[in-house]
Amino acid sequence: MFVDWIVGHAIPLLLFIPAVSGVIAWLLDRDSFGELKDVFGLIGGLSPLVIIAITYGRLGDGIKWTVDTGVFKLFFHLGYMSWYLSAVAAVVAAAMAFGMVSTSRSGYEWMFALFSVSGLLGVFLSGDFAGFFLFWELMTFASFMMVLRYNKGASLKYFVLSIIGAYAMLLAIAILYAKTGTLEFQSLRGMIYNSIYGMVPLTKTDTILVYALFLLAFGVKAGTWPLHVWAPDAYSETNQSYTSFFSGALSKAGVYGFVLMFILLGIKLYVDMGTFHGHMVFTYILAWLGAITVVVAGFLAVLQEDLRKLLAYSSVSQVGYIVLALGIGSGIGFAGAFFHILSHAVFKGLFWLITAALILRTGKTKFEDFGGLAEKMPVTFAMALIAVLSLAGIPPMAGFASKWLIYEAAISAHMPLVAGAIFLGSGLAFAYVVRFLYSIWFGQRPSDLEDVEEAPLPLLIGMAILAIPNIVFGIAPGLAVKLINKFIPNSGVAANGYYSISTGVGTYNALSVTLILVVGLAIAGLIYIYGAKARKIPVTDTYQSGNPVTEDYNLSIRRNFYRPLAEALEFWLRYSFDRFYARLARMAEDFADSLREGFYNGNVQSYSWYLAIVLLILALWGVL
Amino acid sequence: MSENDGFISYELQEFKLFEPLFRWARKKSLWIVAFCTGCGGIEMPPLFTARYDLERFGMMPNPAPRMADLFLITGYVTPKTLKRIIITYEMMQDPKYVLAHGSCPINGGVYWDSYNVVKQLDKYIPIDVAIAGCMPRPEAVMDGIREIMRKIETGEADGWKRYRENYEWYRKNQDELFGEGWREKDAKRWLAWL
Questions:
Q1: From B87, B182, B184, residue closest to A546, measured CB to CB
Q2: DSSP H or E run through A68
Q3: Which residue, of A189, A314, A515, B141, has the greatest Cβ tally within 10 A?
Q4: B11 and A547 in contact by Cβ < 8 A?
Q5: Quick check: helix, strand or coil at residue A126?
Q6: Which residue of chain A comes nearest to B185, CA vs CA?
Q7: Which residues in chain A are closer than 8 Å to B182, comparing Cβ atoms?
């Protein structure tokens, strides 16, 4: 009974519980109510997961919900694809909520964090462009407010770029609406299909313009090169528990936008833009944007000196994989993209929660201040290891299965250069996770970190929520592929049971890989145990060319870890889109200043001259 | 055999059956820690190059003490170097062997009346085989290596065990030469100059 009611009202519950409990948490932010705001925050954060779990297997033809606002009719639809995306968002939101219990400073943060949960779910569930844009803006605004609390400059950069993207999208929607007269996805799709036969006046120029505007709109959110510049600042200058949702789930809104573009406009774009060497041009552009993002952000991540910046660039790079996989344009590519949406959300969310724990316990963010924390925070370290293995794409973690699908897609689509770019990106991913492992967890511990404690329980619960899917979907990739195959017909990826997936090119049997790994580890363990007795020695008992050393010497490389790489890239690092946009912004500011000073100059005579000029124009026009 | 019981390692009693195998494997893969002291350093490369070629005995020069088991002392040892030698020697894994090469480690050689040369290395770290000569020919060094291989086979090369058992005595000699707490003091002396 109750379950049926929830399934029937799944969409309004998903959309409103987080936002409403966020507002309640904000209202309860008084000393007299104590921890109550955290309780409501947790309710808001966990409710999507509960509802999504209840609706599993009960979707049927999809759950629909319509609201008539008077001006627009808003359609919402919970189909298999939106269920999958919402499930990913809900898992990350639940983990974020637990993390926020430890790290949130006020009800303000709860409110806007939960607003962005509602906003993202709304974007995924919308069945028309009106609701899509509405929730898109809610999501952008909420995340902007979260960043604003910590850093004004970073938040403005994010906001301006997001607004440019959002209004590019509005323009594209307006063009589509003007030509087709509908905002609803189903009928819009039919209209677009008709426009190929000339029944709807959507010309080739319109299509290309809409494509370019969508590229701008969704590219900003997904952090695609060259629109990624907001991400490193915005991801780092906020509550890091929130960033696990911001970077893990919110960036998927842009990716979902690209998916939507394929669904709605795909055929029209193919007809109007044609092919290039056997690839559809519009996907080919996307594939290359993704490939450049992967490589550029990978290189930049390797060179960062701040933990948060490194993870932020890594997030940009990993979302680049998803964009690239979409750009391959084949069924395997789509399956790989959706799988990577899941695995990126879980491993990057985990990374950010670990960062939150580190910042909470040490108050530091720079690599040069860390070291040797594996002994002090063993559980967090274990979680970090899971995240690292998954990000670097090491079986049996989810990251391997999804990257494997993307490789298969690139290879079977005959895109050698794109495949090369993702191989390079993977190598870079190894390079920066090694930096993360080495600088934070291993080596000599600075003396001011001697009394660091293990992360608090709520944060550890949040980490566990994200670590479990990393392992489960790594060992049972068929589970994810089965879900994905429900909404991508003929994807070309088959799930042979839970543990094995296969494409036309090859098969990945995760269970046997796991078993071999476990057996291998067991054999290695036996050799280690019986090989000789291990003796624990202090960290300073190390070969410093035979010289005696004490704790006074810093023997870990904490700064400029990849200096030779930075030197090799010196030429390329001179060009930066970050600086380019900054210069552009300064020029716009100067222009605005000159306008203000030039026109509003306080000289009465010039105002009368403006009047005379306007009169002259009117006279020439023939009005007077 | 009886007097060398437990030679392989104190820790590996359960593998006693394989002792001969382990000894054979050890003597056939001696890795040298590349620590060239004094003039003898120049005599090491010819040993490993085409003419004399020690690699046919399974020997390899190796920069990491933790991976090496043969320490070649190739000439006079000053107290400053001795500190580094002791630290490096202690860092090597058991079992480890020391081959003193040339006259200086034995009795100071031509520097018998120098204030700054250690006259008898055996007082500070245990030596398994010593080769006299200034400098010894590569053939002589190879002979010394053959000797150390024989000693490994029979279990007579037990310097590492002597060092462990008589550590008090070695430690006393070291402290007499350098002064107590020399490791700490030596490490700290650079801090002022950083």
A1: B87
A2: strand A63-68
A3: A314
A4: no
A5: strand
A6: A548
A7: 548
Looking at residue A366, the DSSP 8-state letter turns out to be: B
Does the structure show a pLDDT above 80 at A533? no
User: d(Cα A499, Cα A504) in Å, to the nearest integer?
Assistant: 17
Q: How confident is the model at residue B8, as a pLDDT?
A: 44
CB contact under 8 A, A550 and B11: no
Q: In this predicted structure, what is the pLDDT of residue A32?
A: 65
| Contact call for A541 and B64, based on CB within 8 A | no
**Residue A294, C-beta contacts closer than 8 angstroms, at least 6 positions apart:** A317, A320, A321, A324, A421, A422, A424, A425
Q: Of A42-46, A114-118, A440-444, B35-39, which gets the smallest average pLDDT?
A: B35-39
Which among A43, A39, A18 is positioned nearest to A28, based on CA atoms?
A: A39
Q: What is the mean pLDDT of residues A90-107?
A: 90
Number of Cβ pairs < 8 A linking chain A and chain B: 40
CB contact under 8 A, A532 and B9: yes
CB-based contact A549 B9, cutoff 8 Å = no
Given the structure tokens 């395997």, which residue do they identify? A332
Nearest CA in chain B to A553: B191
Distance, in Å, from the CA atom of A518 to the CA atom of B119, rounded to the nearest integer, reads 55
Q: According to the model, what pLDDT value does residue A505 have?
A: 81
Pairwise CB contact (< 8 Å): A546 & B88: yes
pLDDT at B11: 47
The one-letter amino acid code at A179 reads K
To which H or E segment does residue A145 belong?
helix A129-148
> Backbone phi, then psi, for B90, in 5-degree steps?
-70, -25
Q: Under an 8 A CB cutoff, do B187 and A547 touch?
A: yes
Look at residue A434 in the predicted model and tell me its pLDDT: 93
A546 to B85: CB separation less than 8 angstroms, yes or no: yes
A322 — alpha (psi -120 to 50), left (phi > 0) or beta?
Answer: alpha
pLDDT at B15 over 80: no
Instruction: Band the pLDDT of A197: cuts 50, 70, 90.
Output: confident
Q: Which of residues 140-179 of B touch A (CB under 8 A)?
A: none
Q: Chain A: nearest CA to B187, how far in angstroms?
A: 5
Structural contact between residues A478 and A501, judged by C-beta atoms closer than 8 angstroms: yes
pLDDT at B5: 44
Buried b (16+ CB within 10 A) or exposed e, A534-566: eeeeebeeeeeebebbeeebeebbbeebbeeee
Question: What is the rounded average pLDDT for all residues in chain A?
Answer: 90
Mutation site for B-interface testing, chosen from A527, A529, A537, A552 by largest number of B Cβ within 10 Å: A552
**Nearest-neighbour CA in chain A from B105: distance (Å):** 19
Give which of B182, B190, B193, B194 to mutate to test A binding, by max A Cβ within 10 Å: B190
Q: Do A548 and B187 touch (CB under 8 A)?
A: yes
Predicted TM-score (pTM) of the model is 0.91
Token look-up 């040339």 returns B102
Give pLDDT tens digits for A152-170. Answer: 989 999 999 999 999 999 9
CA-nearest of A233, A236, A244, A234 to A99 is A244
Identify whether the C-beta of residue A46 lies closer than 8 Å to the C-beta of residue A94. Answer: yes
Considering only CB atoms, A550 lies closest to which of B12, B83, B184, namely B184
pLDDT at A278: 84
pLDDT grade for A69, boundaries at 50, 70 and 90: confident
Average pLDDT of the residues in A421-442:
92
pLDDT tens per residue across span B101-155: 889 999 988 999 999 999 999 999 999 999 998 889 999 999 999 999 999 988 8
Residue contact A533–B11, C-beta within 8 A: yes
* Gap from A532 CA to chain B (nearest CA, Å): 6
